[in-house]
Amino acid sequence: AxxxxxxxxxxxxxxxxxxxxxxxxxxxxxxxxxxxxxxxLAAAFQGWLHFLAIQTARRLQSRRAISKxxxxxxxxxxxxxxxxxxxxxxxxxxxxxxLGKV
Length: 102
Description:
Elements: H1 2-99
């Protein structure tokens, strides 16, 4: 009976060691999985930040290009207006000269 009890105790202790080692292995595996997931998540986040920086730069570049085009059109409109004012003044001056009112 002692021998049976001893074998049973040894078997139970062996099983407890096996369960404890599996528990430790699962904990290590869970930590590794979390690390891998966090690494992937961090890489995805860094990729998103890079994409965001590129889009921000493109938006700024587009705004500058549009601003230049608008300024060119505004400048052309102002130049046309100014030339019209100069031409109108010149015509008025010539009319006054021809009427002898100068």
